[in-house]
Amino acid sequence: MKPKDAISCSLLPYYQKELVEAGCDEAGRGCIAGPVVAAAVILPADFYHPLLNDSKQITEVQRDLLRPVIEREALAWAVAAVDHKEIDKINILQASFKAMHLAIDQLHLRPGLLLIDGNRFKPYWQIPHQCIVKGDSKYAAIAAASILAKTHRDALMKQLDREFPDYDWKTNKGYPTPRHKKVVREKGYAAYHRLSYKIKL
Question: DSSP state, 12?
Fold first, then answer.
């Protein structure tokens, strides 16, 4: 039975009450450079923050404010990355599943149910899962996972930008912006680009 009581931004606090839930989400699937990063988060049932929402619906400043709150107040959380080479080897969908699995591996509490943002998932051992389209705008734990995945990935891209500043990864985070594609046209691919992607330059 889904709860009728909602928290901030119309987010629901849980999908069901019997099992411990972990929300899972990823960041970076649409990028042409850098890793895909996933997070798994188990929140207290009464967790509340007025800013909590899908990471795409709030600002970078708001995400950065939420990250330490989630990391401090979550019952358990973990983040994992799969790099560009592995993405090229196994494809981005499988890499996203792998990153989620790696994040779940690190949780010090074992969830009884996984709430997955999206419509597909590769089962994780014997733990049941529920795929939820646009789940990061519906359930608090998935929204929290989206915040951690996004902020951790953005921090990684800012580090990679120091090696290849011409590509402006600190700003575009590896997404195919016009400026990013222009630099690729002029300078070619850099390390950390996903070579398997068919990029329209």
Answer: B
